Amino acid sequence: MRITVTGATGTQGGAVARLLTERGHEVRRMTRRPNSSTDVYGDFDDPESLRAAFADADGAFLVTPFGVPAETEVRQGKALVDAAADVAHVVFTSATNADRGTGIPHFDTKAEIEGHLRGHPLWTVLGPAAFMAAGGPVALPIPADLKLHVVAPEDIAAMAVLAFEQPERFRDRRIDIASDRLTGPEMAAIRGTEFVEIPLAEAERYSADLAAMFRHHAEIGLDLDVAALHAEFPEIGWHSYANWI
Ligand SMILES: NC(=O)c1ccc[n+]([C@@H]2O[C@H](COP(=O)([O-])OP(=O)(O)OC[C@H]3O[C@@H](n4cnc5c(N)ncnc54)[C@H](OP(=O)(O)O)[C@@H]3O)[C@@H](O)[C@H]2O)c1
């Protein structure tokens, strides 16, 4: 299959492009700074470049950037969906429970893009939890006893590649994904480091958007049954956090 992967120089797109290549698919890695024969130029603000990057592709993996204004993410996400209108299967990576009206800015933007994608003949939305991270102390604005859903980027990629390879299993579905669920102190113990609970007010000064997400995690929590997900997709070979570290 020929798949155009957006965000290919980033965490998710990079993992997806690597795994597709390993599995023998033809990959077009979209970036604003192409520097290899498998790279294709594309700018989310340049619809013509997007149409060219998606031309004759069997699949498109769509990712939107974090840290841009909400209206920018929505505009760029919808432009990606529009440009991929003739691509047989579109897989959009969103965020866990982004469709629940959480009020978290970078979740609600994704819900809007998901709504736009639902008009496509064959779509899949993956909703990853927080990406697994390594290095330094585990400093998070969450209580020490809160179990956080986390996902290995490699597992996001494995789900995306499986979706392209087995489209009927993923047809018009929205699937939230996490690899493991554990507390900050449990993560710190695995990393041989300390857990530091950052006051939410401090996180708020850094990013009101992320603070809103962590407040939601602590007060409402994510609705994602990890055991049921892993039972449905055993071939992913889900990483535990310890295993990933
Ligand atoms: N971090 C988490 O824990 C987490 C969890 C769930 C969901 N998310 C969501 O994941 C998304 C980010 O994914 P990521 O972390 O994999 O990305 P990333 O590592 O931050 O990389 C961003 C990618 O987007 C591309 N990009 C940005 N603006 C672009 C533009 N105007 N035109 C073309 N390409 C553009 C960049 O390509 P070039 O610079 O090469 O052009 C780069 O490949 C965000 O929407 C975030 O909300 C994150």
What does this structure look like?
Helix 1 packs across helix 5. 42% of the residues lie in helices and 20% in strands. By secondary structure, the protein is α/β, with parallel strands linked by helices. The model has no long low-confidence stretch (mean pLDDT 97). Strand 5, helix 4 and strand 6 form a beta-alpha-beta unit. A 7-stranded parallel β-sheet has the order 3-2-1-4-5-6-10, with helices on both faces. It contains 11 helices and 12 strands. It has a domain of 171 residues: NAD(P)-binding Rossmann-like Domain (Rossmann fold, 3-Layer(aba) Sandwich). It is globular. The structure holds NADP nicotinamide-adenine-dinucleotide phosphate.
Show the helix and strand layout:
Elements (H helix, E strand, L loop, with lengths): L1 E4 L5 H12 L3 E6 L7 E3 L5 H8 L4 E4 L7 H14 L5 E5 L11 H13 L5 E6 L1 E2 L6 E3 L7 E4 L1 H13 L1 H4 L2 E5 L2 E3 L1 H8 L3 E3 L2 H7 L1 H12 L6 H7 L8 H4 L1
Parallel strand pairs: 1-2, 1-4, 2-3, 4-5, 5-6, 6-10, 7-9, 8-12
Antiparallel strand pairs: 9-11
